[in-house]
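Appendix B, example 12.
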Amino acid sequence: MKDWFRKAGFGLMIHWGLYALPAGEWKGARMKGIGEWLQADFRIPNAEYERLASAFHPIFFDAEEWADIAVCAGMKYMVVTAKHHDGFAMYRSAVDPYNVYDATPFHRDVIGELSHACEKRGLKFGLYYSQDLDWHEKNGGGYRSGHTNFIDGKDAAPVSWTNDWDFPNNGEKDFTEYFERKVKGQVTELLTGYGEIALIWFDTPMTLTKEQSIELYELVKRCQPDCLVNSRLGNGLGDYSSQGDNAFPEKYYAQGLAETPATLNGTWGYKSFDNNWKDAETVLASKRYLAEHGVNYLLNVGPDALGRIPAPAEQILRKVGEAASVHPPTNKL
């Protein structure tokens, strides 16, 4: 079941959600951090952030086009945010109506459409799911971890991992309630309702106990035995290693399967003013370097609120595909 991953080498990651609408700006200010962290960065109350859902209507979203771009770039798999830290699901969830089908005028299942588009083209399909942090939930995780200043910009103010603006009393929070009610149910939905899921991409494991990580891992394997789980499930579990964001190992990775998630510009979720694009030559060099070090390259783009992969990103990916077809990289795996 791991052979496909070992041979794939190159994949497309997509961060897309309500945060694409404000595009890095809020009430006259521009965020210094990464776009998908907008709610936490500006400490936006849920009642206010939820209003974005009523305006989310990406009329130019085309799953077929996204999949075609990935194929043209020479990518072999796609990983899409099914739910990020803001708690908003990009599929129709019976567990929580705070989702793209039930809460927006768009009224379409993004994950379902992308799953079909990838299957038609032979692209392996994976899902990102934030299993620990969830700012829409009182009992979402991260409340034992204080603040982070990992976002780009040394002068950026620390940002809370948990929603302590709507729910300030961290001592009253109960992650187990959230885990049992929402996480297990939504992971089950995703792994039973969308065909073959090649991998599930968990993130920021801060609050889960070892027992909860084990339970989630076993749940994935019961639903889809061949679905790979990344190491960000937490507590030492996972089928392959997720390297740090934009991290390039110095030595050959000989301990099994590994992957580096990396951005094409400076953000993961869409920011209208982030034009710090890596050119095709840089992407190709990174691709070769990682292949030579035994690590897959998962390259991220953040579509805009209309559902478009930004034109510079598409142009770069198409150039990468054209160049790679002429000069394929050498992979030691």
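The two ends are 16 Å apart (CA to CA). Residues 329-333 have pLDDT under 50 and may be disordered.
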